[in-house]
Amino acid sequence: MSEGPAMERPYFENEPQRPTVLTEIPGPESRRVIEDLEKLFDTRSLNMLGNYQKSFGNYIADLDGNLLLDVYSQIASIPVGYNNPALLRAASTPEMASALVNRPALGPFPQHDWAQILRSGILKVAPKGLDQVFTSMAGSDANETAYKAAFMWRRRQERGGPNVEFTPEEMASSMNNQAPGSPNLSILSFKSAFHGRLFGSLSTTRSKPIHKMDIPAFNWPQAPFPILKYPLEDHVEENAREEQRCLEETERLIKEWPLPPAAVIVEPIQSEGGDHHASPAFFCGLREITKKHGVLFIVDEVQTGMGATGKFWAHDHWDLPEPPDMVTFSKKAQAAGYYYGNLELRPNKPFRQFNTWMGDPARAILFRAIIQEMERLNLVENTARVGDYLYARLEKLAEKHPTEMRNLRGKGMGTFIAWDSPRRDEFLKAAKTVGVNIGGCGTDAVRLRPMLIFQKRHADILVEAIEKLFSSQN
């Protein structure tokens, strides 16, 4: 028998028992501070003003005494709770202080224990088959540097190996942004994908026009991502046909796009674009197509990685016949970069994959502390178990309120759960009045992104709040 909420041992002994809502959000004190902040900083995307000194565990506080159950967790980037004691201890060590005040340029001046930091942290949880890492600054940067690695790898194959020197024509034309030095290649992504907001990553982002307006972009291909029908068990054949259609179009684009793709990049779950899922068979099909055509396979685990789907890496659900070529990470890792296994993905010369910092030892130290906390508390297993419990409760709620909770998805995927709402923005705003901070994605999806320390009793609070909102709206 699985333990119920009453039998759970809390991960944070002094965590609040329930949310507290004292004022509207933002309240008077928050509005005063926001008004002052607006003089210096664009606040138009502000969700709520956090008081992080008073936030704890699964709860986010503000300046007006409100305390909300946070199932958005800084857009899926808080792994083990606000003010986690283990992370605070790691942040207070001489090792961390040295990394912060002596931040090294890791390419030319790596610190003496950089290999040990990598082995004991970032590489300890490397995806199967990938034993190398390139560290970077953020998720967008992780994807962009992975793209660079893919392009350099592709040209290396075309030249015939790593020791073939660049021609004078290649070097001269690269300075004018023209071929052959700037080759006519591309990265293939998928409709509704989100891979970042820098120039290369933005050219593969297809989720919302607001991300892309006024920004020049590369002429890179986008394949259709499967739009499945729910419940899955009622649409097996139809969904299989949809996935096959998308695979066939992906292969056609690889063969026919005028700028040949050096890589295909895909999210295990299209998060920002609307929480779209696909089956393991679809992703295994992508892996097969990329191998067939000599195209690299990049899995963007910036949002799905670090245990949120009930496995450490979401692509572990697929049972791939061989690993991806690269896996990018950030968010819950509190660090960023990409894993790889093939040494040919290292550039043939120094300074080609390079910037001043190339990541941050302080963030790598924090990542290591997060991993240790996840292992100590068995948080991946917790997320799988609590996710099943939460999904079962939401499934009953969807049966009771079918017009308010549509296309519930994420079964068996930990707490990576979403549904479509006819009044999504209104729902998200109203959720704060019942003590929950929750996020959306796409045009009408509500997405759950709780922390890894989210437990069954938190799930009960969340479901009760949603039930209250649905009942008040009907």
In words, what does this structure look like?
This is 4-aminobutyrate aminotransferase. GO terms for molecular function: 4-aminobutyrate:2-oxoglutarate transaminase activity; pyridoxal phosphate binding. It catalyses: 4-aminobutanoate + 2-oxoglutarate = succinate semialdehyde + L-glutamate. InterPro entries: 4NH2But_aminotransferase_euk, Aminotrans_3, Aminotrans_3_PPA_site, PyrdxlP-dep_Trfase, PyrdxlP-dep_Trfase_major, PyrdxlP-dep_Trfase_small. Keywords: Aminotransferase, Pyridoxal phosphate, Transferase. By secondary structure, the protein is of the alpha/beta class. The chain folds into two domains: 5-83 and 384-444 and 465-473, Aspartate Aminotransferase, domain 1 (Alpha-Beta Complex), CATH 3.90.1150.10; 94-375, Type I PLP-dependent aspartate aminotransferase-like (Major domain) (Aspartate Aminotransferase, domain 2, 3-Layer(aba) Sandwich), CATH 3.40.640. It has 15 helices and 14 strands. The strands form three sheets. The protein has a seven-stranded mixed sheet with strand order 3-9-8-7-6-4-5. It is globular and about 70 Å long.
Name a few traits of the molecule.
474 residues, alpha/beta, Aspartate Aminotransferase, domain 1, Aspartate Aminotransferase, domain 2, seven-stranded mixed sheet, four-stranded antiparallel sheet, 14 strands, globular
